Every structure is written in structure tokens, then in C-alpha cells.
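ok so i was messing around last nite and threw this chain in just to see what happens. nothing serious, just curious
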Amino acid sequence: MHLLPDDVLRHLPRRSLAASRCVCQSWRVIIDDRSLLATAALLPCTLRGIFVQIGVPTLSGFFARPSPAGTRRPPIPGVLDLDYLDTNQIEKSLLTIVDHCNGLILLDHHVVNPATRQWTRLPPYPPESPGSDIILDGYHALVFDPAMSPHYQVFLMPYVLRRATVSGQWPPSPLLLHVFSSRTEPEGSTWRWEERSFVREGNATMGTIDEVCSSSGWEPFDTYSVYFRGSLYVHCQNNCVIRITIANHRYRIIKLPGDFVGNQNITVDPYLGKSQEGVYYALVIGLCRLQIWFLKEYQSSYSSYSNSYCGGINGDGGGMETTTMDHEHEWVLKHDADLGPVLAAGYTLNDGGQQWIWHNIDTKKKNKESLVKEEEFEWNDSDDENGSAGEDRQYKGYISQVFGFHPFKEIVFLYDTDTRVVAYHYNRSKVQDLGVLQVRERVSRSFSYTPCWMPDLPGMHN
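result:
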């Protein structure tokens, strides 16, 4: 029996680790000596709920199902408020969740682990260089994978603010980015930003600076990023994604499918997210037509990186329609359907004790006792199959927002007519009601939250 190395075993999900432990004595010794099963229990492998950002800037609320009776798991005390941070009164009134990655959330000035209530304050942002008034640090992207390393990084992504007097393609090569890393030794007692250079792969760019400046339909506070298999994917200007391969300091521009910028029938912000197989992109056309695209990348374009700790990569294309093709990647159309008939036909409303609940600072004050007793659990979509206390009703509506993807299943979360949140199982064309969410302001961002229970990450405080 060959001995599997530690760095292979430690990336297996808990069930696979438990099965591997029974294979032979040598594997059992490795797993037990290194407490791999205990470590796997701390990784972000469960969906807890959805952070929802209402307006800009303001603190998010949290939309989640209450835990079933009899659950005995550790609570997550830090998701409902962030009063444990070292914020002054002005910062506290402007707290905005900018990004989420594998259990950590990124605020304007902090990286936070809500599960452990630990945090670190980011260093002051680097000043603009003289003459750089056309470029700003428009989007901040968080990078973290505790299965690979306890360290985390924040990337400041530039964008073109106004028309420039200079010509040329955007972005340039090399592209200089400011990066914060918990690996960087602080100068004295403070952290610092470092400048990194990334070289372009391939010939594709976002276009000329003039074209990028004149493109509409994209704002930095409406966009998303994905960290997957050692690469960071960020939705950028002019209907593009920039893929940054961190290890080899390279980047590639990938055109998005569908013309979000030029199509006037697209009124809902698209959503770039991570799900079962990798990087996904959701696009709503008109009132109810939903397209879900999957970025299929070939082995030559992958960096050397292990499969995900929550199930690995399924590269099966399944006979799906494809469009834009590159030598190293292609967008695969996983689903294209008009959900109007499904929504108009009605679905079972989840109005009973199983419905998901909206939590924010106001609801916490009103329901402090019940929220403190709420316990951690993993939402299982089968739990709500027959547990609804609602009834079949006719309900006509439209998709007003994409709330994100389930990180481990073929499910996308949708906001139906600014009233109800539904889970759409696109492989089965089934709509599952989660509950009511009625807010007065526009939903600007939303993130599927997967708690990470690993304590004492580098540079974090209690």
C-alpha cells in the first residue's frame, strides 16, 4: 500500500478522510497524528446563510434559516453585528461588507472572521501617485483558502475613472497592483501594502482606454470576485473578467458571455460567483430569463493547485452548448430558461417555522434573546421539501436580483419581485421558497456565507 502524503490527505473532505482512515494502519496514523479530521471540521464546508448589503454605504444584514430544535453546534456570535471591532463612530456608521472568501469577510478597513469574532485592521491605503487621476483602486478582492494556508490577502484592483489624454490598451503589461498579505512582516507594529507586478497572458485586453472609459453598466460597488484553485477572478469594466494567477504573477483578460454592457434588456446586475465546479456567471435578461454560464478551463491554464476540500472538480461538460472559445478556456451555457411560467404558476410559500429570517442590527435589538440562542447548522435543501406550513398559491413576478450561488450545489439564489428569496435548482428547474425579505433600499451586494472555525489566523485579534 502506497503512503499518501500529508498534503494530499489534508485536502480531502471529512467523509473521505473518515473512509481513508479505514484503508490501512499507515493512513490512519497520518490522519490521527495530524488531527486531520478535527481540522477538516473547522473548514468552510457548510452554507450558513446570505449576507445582503442594503444601500451604499451601510452594514449588511444576514438572511438565514433558524436552526432546528435539538441542534448542538457552536454559535456564530459575530454575524449579526461587528461591535467587537476597533472602529470609531464615523467608521462604525460606514461599515460595508466589500467581499467574502471562504469564511472571512472584507470591510473597508478590516478583514474579519465572524465565526471566531477575530479581525485585523488593514493598513492605510497607499496614496495615489502624482498624475494618476484616471486610475483609482476601485475594487477590493479578498483571497483566502484555509485548506491550503491560514494566510489571507487583499488585492486593490484599479479601474479607469474618466477619459484619458493618453491612448493604448487597458490594462497595461506589466500591471502593478497593491496587495496586502498576512505573510508580509509588519514594519514595527503596523502592516503595509506591497506592490506586485503581473504580466499579461494572451492578446486579449479590455479594449482601448477610451473604450473602457465609455463603457457603461458597471460600477465597482456592484461587482464580485472569485478565488478558485490559486487564481483570483474579478469582474471588471467593459464586460470582462481579469484572472490573476497569483503564484506566477500573470493575468489574463476573459470576455464575459452575453452583452451586459450593450444589452438594454439586462436591468439586473450580473453575478460572478463560485459554485460546484468552479467559476459561474448568472445573467438575467428581461424580466425572467435566466442564463447560467460556467467557465471551463483546460489543464494547461490551471496553476498547480489541489482539488477543493469540499468535493473537488467535476470537469464533465455534459453535452452543454458552448460559445466563445479561447485556447485555454470557454464559457459553457449550463442553463437558459424563461422562469416566468415557473414563477407565474406559483410555488409553495415557506411561511411556517422553516422560513429563513432577516437579521440586522434593528432585529437584533428587538429579538436579542432569541438570536443569542440561535445555533450553527448547515442548510440542507431537502429539509424544506415537505416541511413548509404554507400552501400553493398563484404568484406572478419577476427576478429583481441574483443573490448568489450555492457554493457546493447546482442552486442559484434569486430575489423574486423584491419580496421573497428563492433557491432555484437549475438542474431540475425547481423553485424552492426560502422566505420573505422586504427592504426599502436597493440591494447592492450579497454573499453566500460559509463559516470558517479556524482560530488565531495570522495577525488577527480577539
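not much to say yet. The longest helix spans residues 25-33.
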